[in-house]
Design a protein that fits this description.
This protein has nine helices and seven strands; from the N terminus they run βββαβααβααααβααβ. By secondary structure, it is an alpha/beta fold.
Length: 242
């Protein structure tokens, strides 16, 4: 078991500021050179503007082995369920999520046209989720059903990251959002291309560091084994430098 210490180094490069974190010691950008970067775009997060997406593409092209961009769409339908009762309003908001996801996808595809010779690809959420080994989702669902430490961690993360959790019409729908996201994220962290570096303009939920450090081994034994056999999650919080 590795020491329970998170290593973080902050750098500025090519117009973006990066805070690179891992349970393994890291020195800087050079540690990313043999990795694949992955940008998962939250469709309602305004930080994902064209400049930030292009910044990711440029950084990957110059400093990494390759990269993927994924628009996270389907999980957001759970957030609609959380804040609206079943009926016309819920349908209207769900349709708006689908339209926004389509707009985001077209935006990304247009940007990627400018990097046609670069090792960058669009990977849809549907295709990503379809590639996740079934046992990961099964273990995550079983751990949640135990109503123990893992489920409490999900609820706490929802309260911190999702406004209106306690006042929601269906707060458990926020937790279903997390449950749908977690298996694909574990897959990309530890299996896709040997484990990608996750890029996001904000902090990662503490839940994923708990998994990475083996703190949830009792409830997620196979996932913990997968994480411990790997060099560890690499997370890159990045923003436009300024």
């Amino acid at each position: 078991m590795p020491r329970d210490k998170l290593h973080t180094v902050s750098v500025c490069c090519d117009g973006v500021s990066l805070a690179i974190s891992s349970r393994q010691p890291i020195s800087g950008i050079a540690d990313l050179s043999d990795k694949t970067g992955h940008l998962l775009i939250s469709i309602k997060n305004r930080a994902f503007d064209k400049a930030l997406i292009r910044g990711f593409c440029h950084f990957v092209t110059e400093h990494m082995r390759g990269g993927y961009i994924t628009v996270v769409d389907a999980p957001y339908l759970h957030n609609v369920e959380a804040v609206t009762r079943e009926g016309e309003e819920r349908k209207r908001k769900a349709d708006a999520v689908i339209r926004l996801a389509g707009e985001r996808t077209r935006q990304v595809e247009k940007i990627l046209q400018g990097y046609a010779d670069a090792p960058l690809s669009f990977l849809s959420w549907r295709d990503l989720a379809a590639d996740v080994p079934g046992w990961i989702g099964e273990e995550v669902d079983a751990a949640y059903a135990r109503n123990g430490v893992f489920r409490a961690a999900i609820a706490e993360q929802c309260r911190k990251m999702l406004p209106g959790f306690d006042e929601a019409t269906d707060p458990l729908a926020f937790e279903r959002f997390q449950l749908e996201e977690i298996p694909p994220l574990l897959y990309i962290y530890y299996l896709l291309d040997g484990g990608v570096a996750d890029f996001y303009p904000g902090a990662i939920g503490e839940l994923f560091w708990d998994i990475d450090f083996g703190r949830l081994a009792d409830e997620l034994p196979r996932v913990t084994e997968l994480a411990q056999a790997h060099k560890g999650l690499v997370y890159v919080e990045f923003h436009a430098a300024g």
